Automatic annotation (TrEMBL):
Alphabetical keyword list: Isomerase
Domain of life: Bacteria
Transport listed as a keyword: no
Xref: Gene3D superfamilies: dinb family like domain (1.20.120.450)
Name of the featured protein: Maleylpyruvate isomerase family mycothiol-dependent enzyme
PANTHER family, per database record: CONSERVED PROTEIN
Domain Mycothiol-dependent maleylpyruvate isomerase metal-binding: 9-130
InterPro entries according to UniProt: DinB/YfiT-like (IPR034660), Maleyloyr_isom (IPR017517), MDMPI_C-term_domain (IPR010872), MDMPI_metal-binding (IPR024344)
Pfam family name, one: MDMPI_C
Isomerase recorded as keyword: yes
Coiled-coil regions listed in the entry: none
Length: 250
């Protein structure tokens, strides 16, 4: 997948989605936020990552220290600001070197890691904007599936002091039935006897399983829509699924 091209494309679609909504409208999936705040969060966030990559950061940057971290008031200028931020990230990775390690909240990673992370950040926040607008949200199956995989990388990473999303011995299976995804559309998440989590692509029997289109699975696993509002099938112990959602909130 061309993450760089997708990063630009998704920021553009996000900007178009936001432009059609009242900036003061609430964002139901981000309680307490308005559409304007959501826009600023996405735009500042991509600049935040770009600045850390450019500086070869070894520790996290205070978001308040992001250069040009506030969008202009003029809507067209604000869109330019958003798109320029995405371009700055790609430029920073190219200049720094895609394989050069920089700070991330999961530990040091190659700078190119941030391109995929910010891509899926804007994808999910585009869903937030669409929900605020009352419009539909669609995503190519391959991109939605990759977003799920990237989200699992984050949510299965140990979080000191946090309860594990699955209890020891439990397993969660996700199955996207979009045509052509193959094994990339199946995920097994398991907790071993010590509660350590891991995930892999593949089919298996879980304590709970959720089946549907990849875009619907993404909306479900990121808590953008409850499964009761999506065209998905829930099998097994729904308490396991609910525990997973409750314990993977960020």
């Amino acid at each position: 997948m061309d993450y760089a091209a997708k990063l630009i494309d998704e920021h553009r679609i996000f900007a178009d989605t936001v432009a059609a909504v009242d900036p003061a409208a609430p964002v139901p999936t981000c309680p307490g936020w308005t559409v304007q705040q959501l826009f600023r969060h996405v735009g500042r966030g991509v600049r935040w990552s770009a600045q850390m990559v450019a500086d070869r950061a070894t520790e996290g940057l205070d978001p308040r220290a992001v250069r040009d971290g506030k969008p202009p008031e003029d809507p067209e200028a604000a869109t330019d600001w958003l798109m320029d931020g995405a371009a700055k990230l790609l430029e920073a990775v190219d200049t720094t070197g895609a394989d050069i390690a920089v700070w991330t909240f999961l530990g040091p990673k190659p700078s190119a890691w941030w391109v995929r992370r910010r891509l899926h950040e804007v994808v999910v926040h585009r869903a937030d904007a669409a929900i605020a607008a009352g419009t539909g949200f669609e995503l190519a199956p391959a991109l939605a599936a990759d977003a799920i995989s990237e989200w699992l990388d984050i949510t299965t990473h140990p979080r000191p002091g946090a309860a594990p999303p699955l209890e020891a011995g439990q397993a969660l299976h996700l199955h996207a039935h979009d045509e052509g995804l193959g094994s990339a559309g199946e995920w097994m998440i398991t907790a071993d006897a010590d509660g350590a989590l891991k995930w892999s692509h593949g089919h298996g029997k879980g304590s709970a399983a959720v089946r549907g289109r990849s875009v619907d699975l993404l909306l479900a696993i990121t808590r953008r829509r409850p499964i009761s509002e999506l065209d998905v099938e829930m099998l097994g112990d729904d308490a396991v699924w609910q525990s997973w959602l409750d314990r993977t909130a960020f």
